[in-house]
């Protein structure tokens, strides 16, 4: 059997087709990353009029700063909570919708809508819902004996930002889980049912292992989302408070660089954040992916 080889009429046509993507990557990714790396080695005044080369001094200061170490631990709690909640709820919804026959498309459409909302808007919505004075949930919680106030309680503030960030990401996870469930051969589930396996056992022994590739992919995406794309949620709800309780790394980069005008430290923080995300992604693909069956 002969295979046909694709040939281009011009020698430069493949390069011309690749050029737009390469240019976008260079302008919006490579160049800003290089600028941040270079600026992290400098100490600049608040107006950017003068700069002094300090080498790795910005990084040494950060690693010895209690506020930065606190932000690192806060980011860990926030990322784990957001990833676990968004993926858990999305999987539950996907399993429920997949069992429906007639109204599956309707429920899918309704559950996807929140993904179109910007993170800042999602933060504002949950800020109103959890507002201690006008929010409906604090009113219900007070009837149950719990007085909610995310402006003074660090635990309440962390719960608020995790709920807001996870709600924004549930729709994305739901789509992939539903697609993964629909790709599982129904004959395997029917054979397990004939052998006497109940719904719970069929899910954990057949369905969930076959969803391992989808789960692994979503875990990587959700960790990156919690690290980078939740700035709008934090800014619209708690602004890093109270008492640095929700000041995650990406928000601290903004607070130190654009509010505190400490540009060198802010650039060093962005470099460390980029290294952390790359390291987590490598660890996930290097070690966790080995247990994934495709």
Automatic annotation (TrEMBL):
Q: Which residues cross the membrane?
A: 12-31, 67-94, 106-129, 157-181, 202-228, 267-288
Q: Which residues form a coiled coil?
A: none
* Self-association and partners: The complex is composed of two ATP-binding proteins (UgpC), two transmembrane proteins (UgpA and UgpE) and a solute-binding protein (UgpB).
One Pfam family recorded for the sequence = BPD_transp_1
Segments forming domain ABC transmembrane type-1: 72-284
Q: What is its main location?
A: membrane
InterPro entries named among the record's database cross-references? MetI-like, MetI-like_sf, UgpAE/MalFG_permease
Q: Does the keyword Coiled coil apply?
A: no
Specify the taxonomic lineage. Bacteria, Pseudomonadati, Pseudomonadota, Gammaproteobacteria, Oceanospirillales
> Which keywords are on file for this protein?
Cell inner membrane, Cell membrane, Membrane, Transmembrane, Transmembrane helix, Transport
**Protein name from the UniProt record:** sn-glycerol-3-phosphate transport system permease protein UgpA
**Record membrane topology:** Multi-pass membrane protein
UniProt keyword Hydrolase, yes or no: no
- What gene codes for this chain? ugpA
Q: Where in the cell is it found?
A: Cell inner membrane; Cell membrane
Protein family according to the UniProt entry: Belongs to the binding-protein-dependent transport system permease family. UgpAE subfamily.
Lineage top rank: taxon = Bacteria
């Amino acid at each position: 059997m002969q295979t046909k080889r694709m040939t281009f009429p011009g020698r430069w046509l493949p390069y011309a087709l690749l050029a737009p993507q390469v240019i976008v990557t260079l302008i919006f990714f490579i160049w800003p990353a290089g600028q941040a790396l270079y600026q992290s080695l400098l100490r600049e005044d608040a107006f950017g009029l003068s700069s002094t080369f300090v080498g790795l001094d910005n990084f040494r200061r950060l690693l010895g700063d209690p506020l930065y170490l606190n932000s690192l631990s806060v980011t860990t709690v926030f990322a784990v909570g957001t990833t676990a909640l968004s993926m858990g709820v999305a999987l539950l919804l996907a399993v429920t919708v997949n069992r429906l026959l007639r109204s599956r498309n309707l429920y899918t459409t309704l559950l996807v809508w929140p993904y179109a909302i910007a993170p800042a808007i999602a933060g504002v919505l949950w800020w109103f819902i959890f507002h201690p004075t006008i929010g409906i949930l604090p009113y219900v919680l007070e009837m149950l004996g719990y007085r909610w106030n995310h402006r003074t309680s660090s635990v309440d503030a962390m719960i608020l930002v995790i709920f807001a960030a996870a709600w924004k990401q549930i729709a994305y996870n739901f789509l992939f889980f539903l697609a993964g469930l629909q790709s599982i051969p129904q004959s395997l589930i029917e054979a397990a049912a004939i052998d006497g396996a109940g719904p719970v056992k069929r899910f954990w022994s057949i369905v969930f292992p076959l969803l391992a590739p989808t789960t692994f992919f979503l875990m990587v995406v959700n960790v990156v989302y919690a690290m980078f794309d939740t700035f709008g949620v934090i800014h619209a709800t708690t602004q890093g408070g109270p008492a640095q309780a929700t000041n995650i790394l990406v928000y601290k980069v903004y607070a130190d660089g654009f509010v505190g005008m400490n540009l060198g430290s802010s650039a060093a923080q962005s470099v460390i954040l980029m290294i952390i995300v790359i390291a987590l992604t490598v660890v996930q693909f290097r070690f966790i992916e080995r247990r994934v069956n495709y």
